[in-house]
Amino acid sequence: MGPQVRSAAVVEDEETIREGICTALRRAGHSAEGFADGLTAWEAFDRVLPDVAILDIGVPRMDGLELCRRLRARSERIAIIFVTSREEEFDRVLGLEIGADDYLCKPFSMRELMARVKVLLRRAAFTGTDREPADEVIVAGGLRLDPVRLAASWNGAGVPLTVTEFLLLQALARRPGAVLTREQLMNAAYPERTSVSDRTIDSHVKRIRRKLLAADPACAAIEAVYGAGYRYGAGGLMW
Predict the structure, then answer these.
(1) What are phi and psi of 227, to 5 degrees?
(2) 133-232 adopts what CATH topology?
(3) Number of C-alpha atoms within 13 angstroms, CB side, residue 67?
(4) In the predicted model, what is the mean pLDDT of residues 184-194?
(5) How confident is the model at residue 89 (pLDDT cuts 50, 70, 90)?
(6) CATH, domain 8-125, list 1.10.3470.10, 3.40.50.2300, 3.40.30.10, 3.40.50.150
(7) This prediction's pTM
């Protein structure tokens, strides 16, 4: 089980989903409080900040986007995960760069959500002395990935990635030159095996490429291999 937290907040106006997430968090050893609207949640956050905030985008009275902005302005350490009805809806959220760590599309697996929470809490609790062999920093060409801090950079420039994007890019960078199928990438990015499609993986790769290009307009680190999948190390970067 991951590190304990003082509090987890679930801001979701659908009662069944809200209570389901709170129950899963408590079973994982965390305290959890649910809120049906954003304003009530913010009034509570204004007194005590949560360690984890799970936010629905479309909650009434103050939407999840504004809550995320306010929380991130108060603390960089809070783990923030959006839940959204449509992946396309979160595309707009990403464009705002408001500071969420990750997102899941409804319907989602509670096991998958708890896996994301565990990864983020480990990052928050990292002291610098508790690395395991699988946690070693990955350097591949201009890319540097720190699996514990979930920190990515390209030629020294930071690249902000969600947890899902980080796991996917890490899988590619660990085997430069090898073609990974979408199935392999699904296993890496969604370890709890929720139902995801090839299109979901393609969307993630598209966003990763866009973020790498923002760090370096000449970056061509990820190559699509028609009918097979993707590989890292294309464009003469590795050889």
Answers:
(1) 75, 0
(2) Arc Repressor Mutant, subunit A (1.10.10)
(3) 34
(4) 77
(5) low
(6) 3.40.50.2300
(7) 0.75
